[in-house]
Amino acid sequence: MALTREQIAQRVARELEDGFYVNLGIGIPTLVANFVPEGIEVMLQSENGLLGMGPYPTKDQVDADMINAGKETVTAATGAAIFSSAESFAMIRGGHVDLTVLGAFEVDQHGNIASWMIPKKLVKGMGGAMDLVAGAKNIICVMTHANKHGESKLLSHCSLPLTGVNCINKIVTDLAVLEVRDGAFHLLERAPGISVDEIVSKTQGKLLVPEEVPEMQFN
Amino acid sequence: MAGFNKVVSSYSEAMTGLEDGMTIIAGGFGLCGIPEGLISEIKRLQTKGLTVVSNNCGVDGFGLGILLEDKQIKKMVSSYVGENALFEQQLLAGELEVELTPQGTLAEKMRAGGAGIPAFYTATGVGTLVAEGKEIKQFNGRDYLLEPSIVGDFAIIKAWKADRYGNCVYRHTAMNFNPMAATAGKITVVEAEEIVEPGELAPSEIHTPGIYVNRVIKGEFEKRIERVVTQEQN
What we know:
The structure holds two protein chains of two kinds. Chain A is of the alpha/beta class. Helix content of chain A is about 15%, strand content about 25%. Chain A has five helices and 13 strands. A ten-stranded mixed beta sheet of chain A has the order 4-3-2-1-5-8-10-11-12-13, sandwiched between helices. Chain A has a three-stranded mixed beta sheet with strand order 7-6-9, with no helix packed on it. In chain A, a hairpin with a 2-residue loop joins strand 11 and strand 12 (about 185-190). The longest helix of chain A has 9 residues, at about 5-15. The two termini of chain A are about 15 Å apart. Chain B is α/β, with parallel strands linked by helices. The termini of chain B are far apart. Chain B has helices spanning about 10-15, 35-45, 85-90, 105-115, 180-185; strands spanning about 25, 50-55, 75-80, 95-100, 120, 135-140, 140-150, 150-160, 170, 185-195, 215-220. Chain B is about 15% helix and about 25% strand. Chain B has five helices and eleven strands; from the N terminus they run H-E-H-E-E-H-E-H-E-E-E-E-E-H-E-E. Chains A and B meet through helix 3 and helix 4 of A and helix 3, helix 4 and helix 5 of B.
C-alpha cells in the first residue's frame, strides 16, 4: 500500500535529531510536527520570523499578530524567538537551519527541484522556497512518486522551471525513501507491500537498487 | 513637526508628498503587520502608477488588495501573490506587472537598500528563472548571483508602539518585513497601535530606532486574520 500523508510525515519525522532546527513547508511537511519522536527536542522555524513554533492556538489564544509562514494562527513554544524577515532568512541562507522539509512537483537525479511554477498556469510565486533550498544543509523532499496519470515525478532532468539546483539529498514519497547522490536516485526503503518493480517502473530517472530493500515499518 | 516630534495628526499629513509613479515599500506578511490606515489613505489619494514592494498584495477588499480596485498599482515586487482574484485578473489582462522575488532576497534587498549597499551576492535563485540577466560570480567554488537592493520613495510601516522620536517596537510576528522596510524609505511613515511617551520604550528593546522614521501616526486596526486555525478545529 502506498503511504498515507500521515505515514509520509511519520517517516520523515524519523530523520529528526535531538537539537535540530527544522523548517517545515506547507502541506505534508507541516504534519511532520505531529510525529516528533519521544525524547528528542526540535525547534521549528517559520520563515515569517518565528523560531520555536508551537501548536495551533486554542480559540481563546488566537492572536492576529501570531501567524506562521502559511498565514495560519499559531503559538510560540517555550524558548521561542521572534525576529524580522531579514534575520529569518539570515538563518536560512546562512546555513543555520539543520533540516528543511518541503514539497515538490519534480525532483531529478542531480538533486534539482521544481516546486513553484507550472508554465501556462497562474504563477503565485516562490515565497521562501528558493532561499530554503539554496541555504539548508539538509533537505528532504516530500512528494508522491508519480502524478495522477502514473507519470514519474523522479526524473533524469526536471522539465518544469527549477526552484534550486543540486540541493536535494533525500526524498520520501508515498512508495519509497530514496537518497540522491552522484547523479542517481538510490533506493533505501520501500512502503509496506510495495514491490521494488513498482518503484522501478515509476522512477524515470536513474535508479540504483541494492540487493536488499527493507520495508518501512509503521505501528 | 519641529525637532523630534514626528507625530502627525492626520493621514493626509502622514502621506504628504506621495505622487503618481512613486515606489512604496510596505511592511507586512500576508495581512499580518500591515499599515491598514496608510493603505486606505493611498486609496483615498487615488495615486496611480505605483510600484509597490511588499511580500504579498493583500486579499480582495483588504490590505494592499484595495489599491487594485482602482488600478493604482502598476507593478508589484513580491515573493507570493495571487491570494486575490482581482490581482489575477489584472495580471492576466496585462494591466499589472509583477516581479516575483524570493522572500529572503526581498528582505535583503530592503535591508541592503536601507544600509546603503547597492547590491549583494546570494546563492538564492542560481540556476532558476530568477537568475536570468543577472551577473553570476563564484566565491569559494560556488555560484552566486548579484541582486540589486531597493530603496522606496515611501516606506509604510505598521508598529505596535512608537514614540514621538520615531522609535518603534513590533508585536510578535507582525514584525516580519517592517524593520527592513522602515530603513529603506526616503520618507518612512509609521502607523502605530499606540503612541507612548518618550522613555517608555526601553532603549535596549527598540526594534527600529527613530533615525529611520520621518512620520508617526496613531492608527486604528481591524487586524483581519487570513487563516484562523485552532486546536479545536484540528
